[in-house]
Design goal:
Layout lengths: L2 H34 E3 L4 E4 L4 E4 L6 E3 L3 E3 L7 H11 L8 H5 L27 E8 L2 E9 L4 E5 L10 E3 L2
Antiparallel strand pairs: 1-2, 2-3, 3-9, 4-5, 6-7, 7-8
Length: 171
């Protein structure tokens, strides 16, 4: 078989399998969501593995049944994020690094989070970074964040503006 024929066969196979792969990822995400999370009609997701309840929408967006998260995430300093969580009441808070990183799905990319459970995670010029309250031990002036586009963990100072996803313990 000529090199051109082999290249054509590989290219055709890859191109024709593209939609199947996307459908497969979506199917796996739906199955994972059903087995790991209990989703409420109020826009909350209870994680049976960690015993945490998450707001499915980023702060600044609102849950609408059938449509997902409407609006744009509000970027804020860590101080403002903590104040917002306190005002939200009902035990809502900014998560620790371990809590937030538990949402990263290694097998997903762009976003690296289950988009069935947490829809409309959008990339900005900085990716999709979300605050935690955990300082970096080696550099306590920096606070961990998780980028949900890549699953990467890094640090910023408290005054930097990032997105926020609130959590609370238990149901």
């Amino acid at each position: 078989m000529s090199k051109l024929a082999v290249l054509f066969a590989i290219t055709f196979t890859c191109l024709s399998s593209g939609p199947l792969l996307a459908d497969d990822v979506k199917q796996r995400a739906q199955e994972a969501a059903a087995s790991r999370f209990l989703l409420s009609d109020k826009g909350d997701a209870f994680d049976k593995e960690t015993n945490l309840t998450w707001q499915r929408c980023s702060v600044g967006t609102t849950w609408k049944d059938g449509a997902g998260c409407i609006g744009a995430p509000k970027l804020m300093s860590l101080k403002d994020a903590k104040r917002f969580a306190e005002q939200a009441g009902e035990g809502w808070r900014v998560p620790t690094i371990d809590e937030l990183y538990s949402l990263v799905e290694q097998e997903y990319d762009d976003p690296a989070i289950n988009s069935v459970v947490f829809p409309n995670v959008k990339e900005s010029s900085e990716g999709a970074p979300y605050w935690t309250v955990t300082p970096i031990d080696e550099m306590p002036m920096l606070i961990y964040f998780v980028d949900f586009m890549t699953g990467r963990v890094d640090g910023h100072t408290e005054g930097f503006s990032l997105a926020v996803r609130l959590v609370r313990s238990g149901k």
